[in-house]
Amino acid sequence: MKIEIYDTTLRDGAQGAGVSFSPEDKLNVIRALDRLGISYIEAGMVADEAGKEFFRSLGGLKLENAKLSVFTPTVHPGVRAEDSEILRDSAAAPVPVAAVFGKSSLYHVKEVLRTTPAENIRMIKDSVRFLRDAGKEVIFDAEHFFDGYSDSPSYALEVLAAAHNAGASTIVLCDTNGGMLPDVVGMAAERVCREFPSVGIHAHNDLGMAVSCSVSAVLAGAAHVQGTVSGIGERCGNANLNTLIPLLQLKLGFDCVKDNIKRITATAKYVSEIANLTFDESEPFVGAYAFTHKAGAHIDGIKKDPRSFEHVDPASVGNLRNTVISELSGRAAVTDKISALSPLGGLEKDDPRVAEVVKVLREREKLGYVYEQAEGSLSLLVDGIAGERVSHFDLLAFKVIAEDAKDTPGGDELMKSSAMIKIAVGGSEEIAAAEGNGPVNAMDRALRRALTRFYPEVGGMKLTDYRVRVIDSGATASSVRVLIESTDGVTVWRTVGVSTDIINASWQALRDSVEYMLTHVTKSAPAKDREN
User: Fold this and answer.
1) What pLDDT is attached to residue 179?
2) 497: how many CB neighbours lie within 10 A of its CB?
3) Nearest to residue 413, comparing CAs of 442, 438, 440?
4) Which residues of 248-282 are buried (b: 16+ CB within 10 A; e: fewer)?
5) Residue 366: alpha-carbon gap to chain centroid
6) Which of 32, 101, 227, 353 has the fewest CB atoms below 10 angstroms from its CB?
7) 374 vs 47: CA distance, rounded Å
8) What's the pLDDT tens digit per position in 232-276?
């Protein structure tokens, strides 16, 4: 059975706190979702000039899988459809689909719209018919349906019938407040599916159950599912399509995006990057931790048969299996990890070099280093023990200066920092300085400026996360652990540093971050061949 996936990341998702998309961002998201095989992509509204301009830019866009949709409200009370500017603009938008939303709850009709139940029905009918007559495929979003159905089932169903009879091809049941339980959604959806030929679900996540409610609706007969990438959206967000699509397709056997499902991990992370959001690596199916194993028994189990601790094959969603090692790991786990990280791969667990890795790992973790979230540093550590680590640069000197703090009008302190770094690459030296928003940012910028002469590729690298944690109780003299996450736009890696000096700990993590990139991304040409 085919399930239509309707993505509303660019409209409902953009209503989430901290989320915004430029016109170019929107086009990139549309192309990525189309490649994934999404059925419908809601491109936004035409409520202002910027929205109108964006929709005009979609006129010549060619897509392989998706239909683009414009989102619009019904007319206001007492207004004819042909007199509504937003309906006229929506009808004129160069996209084949229009999603129109209207109230299906008597409470909202009376208290929010401040109109009569009959007028609300008229508004819905006229709006749907107007868009249908303009040549649009019309999808009707029944706002607050489940709340309305609980209060007055007869009126909620009358609203659906009005939209359907006016020409809506799909009726979408919206849990707009996100407060419904899956069994309630399932029971109501089952009745609606008996009366209407094409039914959809739009669930919000205020109870953390948007995915579960969507699944309940599908099992009750709904064949159209709305949601957003990573579940972004207003308040607690929407149904997370990163979870919902694999769940429906791999677990329940529905056809959502066919073989394109292998693109879902890459698509999820790409859209998150465009939205300038930190990706949640704990997300089911698509997160880096979704198939990461730490416990010795689990690692032993997946080595014998991945099905022992994995509910699906990571490759089925374009993800990877991973293991992490710690001071509690046995030699078998360390051996497996080395096989993935280092030229030492292929060793037997009784090899003395494996014992050396275990020894060094335990010694360093006593000092506060944690490698389960810093595989970049772990890889470099293993390479060093193997005698295979290549040092791409040497630090000769660095200095970080924080200027005197100045009070801002709001009462906060403003502190600028600068850094000077002197490095050596082969027989050449380079000195660079930079200012930054804090000492670590200044140090990062200065280091990359110094290295660019030798390794231009560091210009495409950026730091995406920085975390500090105190690891003992020495007050201001405490040791701290710094974790840095970096990316080159394709790969993400994490590195760690530990010291009683936060600048030194940051330097360790930053140095490892750059060394890891150069080790795994650059060619094997000697440093002297890289000089300009």
Assistant:
1) 96
2) 27
3) 438
4) bbbeeebebbeebbebbbbbbbbbbbbbeeebbbe
5) 34
6) 353
7) 46
8) 999 999 999 999 999 999 999 999 999 999 999 999 988 988 888
